[in-house]
Each structure stands twice: as structure tokens, then as C-alpha cells.
Amino acid sequence: MDFSRMLDTQIEKTVFFMLEQQGLLAGRLATLRETHDALRESYRDVGRDLLQLLVLVELNAISLRKILKKFDKRFGYRFADYYVKTRANHPYSQSPYNAWSSNRKAACYLSPCL
Questions:
Q1: Are 105 and 88 in contact (CB under 8 A)?
Q2: InterPro entries from the xrefs (predicted)?
């Protein structure tokens, strides 16, 4: 009987150790899940902010087109074409990530680009 009690004690220690390790692993997984969820939410926030910025850029482009169109109509000029052509190569209309040509940029100022 001593052997069986000794065996039960060792099995009990092993089970307790495994339960303790399972709890530690569950805690680590929960921390990783929270970190992952927070990271995922942070990426979503950045994506939402980027979409809002793109909407703002589009609204500004539409407004600029309307202003230029109204100016041309009111004063009988073709100022919109001149303005867009002279501003297409301006530093604030340039981007190191933008591979469009100046003509493409100019066309986008006057009509929506696809």
C-alpha cells in the first residue's frame, strides 16, 4: 500500500503542476489576445482616419473644381485650365509616392479620377 500511496502522491503533484502550467499558459494567451485585439483595433482606427482623410481630400477637390468652374463662368475666363496646369508641378501637389504624370494630375483637378 505504501507504493500505491507514493504513486498517488506523485500523480497528484504531476496533475497540480499541469494545472498550474495550464493556468499560466491561459494567462499568456489572454494577454496575447488582448494585445492582438488592441493592435487590430489600432489598425482599424488608423484605417478609419485614413478613409476620413481621403473623403476630405475628395471634398476639397470637388470644391476646388466648383470654385474654378464658377469663376470661369462668371468672368468668362479659362482660368481653371491655366490654374491647374501651373499648379500641377507645384511642390505641394507633388508626392514621392505619386507616379501620375502632370497631365493626369491636371485632369483630376477638373474631373473626378478613377
A1: yes
A2: SPX_dom (IPR004331)
The residue-averaged pLDDT of 3-23 equals 87
Where do the H-state alpha helices sit in 76-101? 79-87
d(CA 68, CA 77): 10
Based on its alpha-carbon atoms, the radius of gyration of the chain, rounded to whole angstroms, reads 33
**DSSP state, residue 111:** S
CA dist 78 and 68 (Å) reads: 9
- What's at 49, amino acid-wise? D
- Give, in degrees to the nearest 5, the angle at Cα 114 between 108 and 104: 35
What number of other Cβ atoms are within 10 A of residue 85's Cβ?
Answer: 14
